[in-house]
Amino acid sequence: MSKTVLANVDGFTPCIDDITQKYGIVTSAVFGRMWRFCQGSNGICNASQAKIAKYLNVSRQTVLTHIKILVKDGYLEDRTPNKKNKPHTYADTGKASLLISLTASVNEVDSDGKLDVPEDSSKKPIKKQKEEDAKPTRPPAVDVYRSKARRYPDKATWKKIHDTVGSGDDDLSFWGEVVEGYILCGWNKLNINAMMDWYKRRKIPTTGNGATHAHATNGTTKRDDDHARRIEKAIASRSF
To answer: Per-residue confidence of the chain (240 residues) as pLDDT tens digits?
Structure first.
């Protein structure tokens, strides 16, 4: 199997999560160090076990033990299995794939105790990316609510709204009718739980006789005739 790695790596030895979880951090580090040696033009690792051990600050015997595991399970190929008392030649089989370009270094501290970070540091872009990743994804049902209520619901309710309504076109359309009908009744537009109750019952909110909702959380209000006709028309257009 040919290796499937394209990388420009300097000052960094990768530890692949799957290898770490299956064998432990030492096996993962041995593979990562040998993988780095395989990034040369010939695509193989000719480094001695002692050299690998020096890079990882472990014993040569430890390196040998974990190389045997990696060869046995197909992560590395020993191309010189019969060689004795000399460094073997190993190749990355491609079973563990990476596609990365990283440069790692230790920054110096200046005389004032401040960290001297190079101008081309990627710290700011990484921070910005983390901020973007941290932003919650807005469910489509929340956008439907926004279009009817002219405001967003509390973010704490977004997941519950999405779990209740889903993202199907018919479901979102009906959810919009529920939100609109609820608001037209003059009820509290922030009462998301009540709206979802109407949605689950597959009914468009209505007072039925034009009376105000007995449990409106912002006080009772009267529904004008235009709103009443609009709700009754919506009800008449659907069969339950």
So the answer is: 445 454 566 677 889 899 999 999 999 999 999 988 888 778 899 999 999 999 999 999 999 999 999 999 999 999 999 988 889 999 988 888 665 555 666 666 666 666 665 555 444 555 565 565 556 688 999 999 999 999 999 999 999 999 999 989 999 999 999 999 999 998 999 999 999 999 999 999 987 644 334 333 333 334 445 555 566 665 555 544
**CATH 1.10.10.10 residue ranges in the chain?**
6-105
Structural Rg of the chain based on CA atoms: 32
Instruction: Say if CB 107 and CB 14 are below 8 A apart.
Output: no
Topology (CATH level 3) of domain 6-105: Arc Repressor Mutant, subunit A (1.10.10)
pTM of the model: 0.42
Tokens 């609820």 -> residue:
182
Count Cα atoms within 13 angstroms, Cβ side, for 116: 8
